[in-house]
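Attaching the record inline, Q. Sequence:
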Amino acid sequence: MREKGPVAVIGAGAWGTAIAWSLAENGVNTRLWALEPEVVLSVNRDRENSVFLPGVKLPDNLQATDDLGEATENVKLVVFVVPSQFMRSMLEKLAKVLPDDTVLLSAVKGIETETLALPADMIRDVMPKVIADRSCYLSGPTFAKELANKVPTAAAIASKNLEAVKFAQYILSAPYFRLYTHGDVVGVELGGAVKNVMAVAAGISDGLGFGHNTRAALITRGLYEMTKLGVSMGADERTFAGLSGMGDLLLTCTGDLSRNRNVGMRLGRGEKIDEIKKSMTAVAEGVSTALSVYHLAEKQKVDMPIASEVYRVIYEGKDPGAVVEGLMSRSLKSEF
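Structure, as predicted:
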């Protein structure tokens, strides 16, 4: 067991709870902030997050609270894991209690719909400069349940501050959780966000009954769209061949634990998006991100046909079957 901490994890969904579990499992005194009182009670009394990560036994050195001040008192690292559309409002609350010497690590995968801001943009907007300048960003192919079962997992942590990113890497690393440092914040964040839209597309294909050929084509062309958008925003093209690009895309488009792929499958089978959202306990980021990516692609003047069709299915009610026909009948062109 290693003496590291205390560390605060803000957000007790499946991924936030899995990160908190991993930290505590490796000797870090960990505080998990939860919005829901029933989650706080379940964690502290039953040693389980029965709402968002049932079946995972939580170590005794992991304690839950609904008090941000209590969660962040005397911490050196805060891991921020909330849905992207609630990130700004939560950051505003966090800014009032976070010590200036804290390293803030965002594990959020999404784009704010109103502003088209990435998590790093929101942190720069809201947090004190001394914290924003050393903030870090975690992304990669990571299913919460598998991490909590000690399935070997790898991800990337990006930051412009080398000291901060190495500190975060050291704290979060575990025998089953390998973290790589990265300098491309935009690319790492964008890959983690846009892949959710592509996972909805892959799910639609699966829901329509198409095969591996179709899914492979969607993944490959989806990666091309992600890369084009990223490069237009100043990201390094190589980033999208890494863990936060191709790695996360493959996992989310093919894994049975993927909420975004599941949403797509249900759309492909004829369910309406409002019905799907009402039935879900956790957030599928690809739904809101489809709207953000559609407008971001317009802003950057980048052609993203797959992402655009996902947007039309979710927000304009387009028939999923017509999506594939439209994509396949586009004018013939060179691959690159």
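The chain has 16 helices and eight strands. Strands lie at 4-10, 28-33, 62-65, 77-80, 103-106, 136-139, 153-158, 177-182.

More tomorrow.
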